[in-house]
Specification:
Blueprint lengths: L2 H18 L4 H10 L5 H25 L5 H26 L7 H29 L16 H21 L5 H10 L4 H26 L4 H21 L5 H20 L3
Helix pairs in contact: 1-9, 2-3, 3-6, 3-8, 3-9, 4-6, 4-8, 5-10, 7-8
Length: about 270
Amino acid sequence: MDYLLLVFLSFGIGIIVGLTGIGGASLITPMLIFVFQVPPAIAISSDVVAATLMKAIGGYKHWKQNTIDLEIVKWLALGSVPGSLMGVGILYLLEHEKSFNNNDDILLRLIGLILLLVGFVGITQLFLKSFFPKLQLPELPKFDLETPWGRLQTASVGAVLGLMVGMTSVSSGSMFAMILIAFFCLDSHKVVGTDLAQAAILLIFTSLGHILLGTVNWSLVLPIWLGTVPGVMIGAKLCLLTPQRALRLVIYTVLVGVSWKLVYQL
């Protein structure tokens, strides 16, 4: 294992997260699997634990800047936390089910499908905004947290995405950000801050589940921390200087390529 290379690549991923807001798990998990040949279950668990510190630091900085909608964070977390723990439980059952000999293949394909969805949705969104800025798309219903129905909708969406995070480590940032944009009237700063805050809460509980699962490799977590934490701080400072649409297009294209390899690897 080349730990210096792991720190270097994690540093680059941290910068990308700070620049774009795209979740590091979408890049770290495939990196561990493809570059360092880490088994999927260990890559998922180690990535979840490693991403927790990065998200917590980002969420704290946004809390200090007053760019977090705490009400949305609360109701998303009420769904995403139990959902993620359920995902960890399913992962545990798969890992200990002797009748399954292809658990790694199942996990790889599941990660690939989620990444493929994130990439295609992101590219479509960028395409429509760039070439059809005046296009009026059908408005999605907004979740009203002042009503019981709106709170139930928010918690339910959180539970579904939390389940994905628990099983694959992917989408703690990307998919939640799309939900915040689609169903809540938030400005761009609060989208990033709220996304990071709820992701931090979600990953804290998910990390505990993965630690109990016993598949966390701390020799991977520590180098990832050494790279991503300073990287995300630098990326956040560079954010205002970088053309966001061009950078997001590159990252989403990479996600599609990685996910395609995961889904059609066999």
